[in-house]
């Protein structure tokens, strides 16, 4: 009886101990699973994309080319193709398929080595996301622990979704959606049965079964998968046969090779980090959509033309350049080229500082001078070689006129009047305007009138400042990001328009009209642009070589676009310098806009702003005739006649000289004759004509005095 009880008790005891140990084991698995699983790793990296002003994608940013999708976006015939080949009992087991493990062990023993794996989809997910590829027993134990816990915490559909989103499909492509785009150029929801099987054939060995590298091997495995799907009741025999008879049907989405976007993309990433605290790593992994104010056509045109050597008068072919263009309405950067041979994450010359030369004159001198109401466009400025302390500025051509209008000083880029005017305005006053235009410099000498700075300014800063004139006197900081949205379409960052008035609309308009003259007849006549263009050239000299140029600039704007082109060498020396000046960037600027289709728009004068008249040109009045005649109404009358000037706005001053005393008798506008009635034939008076400019308040060269002659009518 005792032996009988013993025979019963011992198995029960063993069963109880086994159950207890199993319970302890399960509790340990649950506990260890929560310890091993880092749920942050379940958040898969997703590619971000940059879209231009038209919404067209121009670039993808990623560490892994991945585009996560939800399970509902994946057709059943696609997801079940993976189940059929990787884990046909996926919906029946709880993370570990003991039947598959037993079968794998049995076949390994028969073969005398490892020939079949027993990992479920859940185990593969655990391994791919949480574990390294080492082959230790501990790693396999962790895999089992994680798989069981994943099955406990997530539904089968969710596990399959995560699995399909993290799979590697070769050629740098991760996830089912990115693979669908890469191999078939379509959304995963549109994949056919055959296409789904093609993709399901790849993950076992992405290089071996690549449909691009080894299409025959992929097709063979695809057909096997289609047969398995038929055997498992996923598709009918007819569907399997029809799909097996199809070609692979690849439509490879070729990797876009767009080097013209590289420098712009780097500036976008820099702005995301500095302005919105979104790091480059976040952008590469976060699945963001970054909308930028980029004009793709303008960007590519600038890139293409800047590579052409004919625009660069360098001592060798390594002369560099940069260009930036801004939307006048928004302040958004439409195009930015950081160098002729720019490499990603390289030295970006859009933000590198250089000496701006005479492009600085409108910003540092003449804009502030007008805004402070010290001078007007046709005010006369001193044009003489003067010394200010130890500084003696000189005109580049060595010619001095004594006086010159502000308009002509800008048009012909005279240095002496610019420095004289800055001295009149005050350096601190000028610097306050520069700072308001986004240019904060430490310099406090009069040389800043000519762009002689300690460090310099960048093409981006200069373009932003000239944009102020184009925008009616209001400064907007140039920007590269319109908005950033996350995977759910929620806006996480975005540009907020913030314009700050620097100049009045009247000052800005006057400057526009004067800078137009620079292009029409001044230092910026090189090249052709069929539309309204205002701008300023700038050239800095390399003093070690006579006639050599260090920096050459053109900064200007049309009705729609403001911009800057710079060219020179990163390091100028006796073997590396420009042999020409600002005419080269001027021509390049015009050609970029023309070939990009930005041509023909006229400037539009703002409301309540007075038009700036074109400059009055005085010609010498060389001859005048004076004759007595008899008129009934005026008896003896002196009739003065002289050659008329082309400009009808010229005022003619009539002077009389009598008894050695000279008097302004009268003046008239536009007429080249004048009558003096009731003249005394014996007065001995003589007369002269002098042209007068009402803009400059200055007389021109007039005639000598002549006495009237008596003649009979």
Kindly summarize this structure in a few lines:
The chain is α+β, with helices and mostly antiparallel strands.
Describe the structure.
The chain is 35% helix and 17% strand. It is elongated and about 160 Å long. The strands form 7 sheets. It has a 5-stranded mixed sheet with strand order 2-1-5-11-12. It has a 5-stranded antiparallel sheet with strand order 7-6-16-15-14, with helices on both faces. It is built from 20 helices and 24 strands. It is of the alpha+beta class and 713 residues long. A hairpin with a 5-residue loop joins strand 11 and strand 12 (491-494). The longest helix is centred in the N-terminal third of the chain and has 35 residues, at 2-36. Among the domains are: 1-36; 67-244, Penicillin binding protein transpeptidase fold (Orthogonal Bundle); 361-446, 3-Layer(aba) Sandwich (Beta-lactamase); 624-710, Immunoglobulins (Immunoglobulin-like, Sandwich). Helix 8 packs across helix 9 (215-231), helix 14 (361-371) crosses helix 16 and helix 14 crosses helix 17 (427-436).
């Amino acid at each position: 009886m005792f032996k009988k009880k013993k025979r019963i008790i011992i198995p029960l005891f063993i069963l109880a101990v086994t159950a207890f140990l199993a319970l302890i084991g399960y509790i340990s698995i649950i506990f260890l699973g929560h310890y091993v699983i880092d749920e942050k790793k379940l958040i898969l990296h997703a590619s971000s994309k940059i879209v231009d002003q038209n919404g067209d994608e121009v670039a993808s940013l990623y560490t892994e080319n991945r585009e996560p999708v939800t399970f509902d976006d994946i057709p059943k015939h696609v997801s079940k193709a993976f189940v059929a080949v990787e884990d046909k009992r996926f919906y029946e087991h709880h993370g570990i398929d003991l039947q598959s493990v037993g079968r794998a062990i049995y076949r390994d023993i028969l073969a005398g080595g490892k020939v079949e794996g027993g990992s479920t989809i859940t185990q593969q997910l655990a391994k791919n996301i949480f574990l390294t590829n080492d082959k230790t027993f501990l790693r396999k134990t962790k895999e089992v622990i994680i798989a069981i816990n994943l099955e406990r915490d997530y539904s089968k559909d969710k596990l399959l979704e995560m699995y399909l989103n993290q799979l590697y499909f070769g050629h740098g492509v991760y996830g089912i959606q990115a693979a669908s785009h890469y191999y078939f150029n379509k959304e995963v929801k549109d994949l056919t049965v055959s296409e789904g099987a093609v993709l399901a054939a790849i993950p076992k060995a992405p290089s071996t079964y690549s449909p691009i590298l080894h299409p025959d091997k992929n097709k063979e495995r695809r057909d096997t998968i289609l047969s398995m799907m038929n055997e498992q009741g996923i598709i009918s025999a007819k569907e399997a046969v029809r799909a097996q008879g199809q070609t692979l049907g690849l439509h490879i989405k070729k990797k876009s090779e767009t080097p013209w976007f590289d420098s712009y993309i780097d500036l976008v990433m820099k702005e995301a980090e500095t302005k919105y605290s979104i790091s480059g790593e976040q952008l590469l992994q976060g699945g963001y959509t970054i909308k930028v104010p980029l004009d793709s056509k303008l960007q590519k045109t600038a890139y293409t033309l800047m590579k052409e050597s004919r625009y660069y008068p360098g001592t060798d072919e390594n002369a560099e350049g940069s260009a930036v263009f801004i939307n006048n309405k928004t302040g958004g950067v439409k195009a930015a080229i950081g160098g002729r041979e720019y490499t990603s994450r390289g030295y970006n010359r859009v933000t590198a500082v250089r000496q701006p030369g005479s492009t600085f004159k409108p910003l540092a001198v003449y804009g502030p001078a007008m805004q402070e109401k010290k001078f007007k466009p046709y005010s006369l400025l001193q044009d003489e070689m003067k010394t200010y302390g130890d500084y003696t500025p000189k005109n580049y051509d060595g010619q001095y006129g004594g006086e010159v209008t502000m308009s002509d000083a800008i048009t012909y880029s005279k240095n002496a009047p610019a420095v004289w005017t800055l001295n009149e305005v005050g350096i601190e006053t000028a610097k306050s305007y520069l700072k308001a235009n986004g240019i904060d410099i430490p310099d406090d000498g009069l040389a800043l009138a000519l762009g002689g700075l300690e460090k310099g300014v960048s093409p981006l800063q200069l373009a932003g400042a000239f944009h102020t004139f184009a925008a009616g006197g209001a400064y907007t900081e140039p920007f590269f990001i319109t908005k950033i949205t996350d995977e759910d379409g929620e806006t996480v960052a975005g540009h907020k328009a913030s314009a700050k008035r620097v100049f009045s609309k009247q000052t800005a308009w006057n400057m526009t009209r004067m800078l137009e003259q620079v292009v029409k007849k001044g230092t910026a006549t090189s090249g052709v642009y069929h539309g309204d263009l205002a701008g300023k050239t700038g050239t800095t000299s390399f003093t070690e070589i006579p006639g050599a140029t260090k920096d050459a600039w053109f900064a200007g704007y049309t009705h729609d676009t403001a911009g800057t082109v710079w060219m020179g060498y990163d390091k100028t020396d006796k073997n590396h310098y420009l042999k020409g000046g600002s005419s080269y960037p001027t021509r390049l600027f015009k050609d970029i806009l023309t070939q990009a289709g930005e041509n023909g728009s006229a400037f539009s004068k703002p409301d309540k702003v007075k038009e700036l008249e074109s400059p009055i040109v005085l010609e010498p009045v060389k001859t005048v005739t004076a004759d007595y005649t008899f008129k009934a109404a005026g008896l003896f009358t002196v009739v003065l006649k002289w050659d008329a000037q082309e400009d009808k706005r010229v005022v003619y001053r009539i002077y009389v000289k009598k008894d050695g005393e000279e008097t302004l008798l009268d003046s008239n506008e536009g007429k080249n004759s004048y009558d003096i009635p009731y003249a005394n034939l014996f007065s001995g008076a003589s007369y002269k004509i002098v042209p007068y400019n009402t803009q400059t308040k200055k007389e021109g060269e007039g005639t000598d005095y002549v006495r009237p002659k008596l003649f009979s009518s």
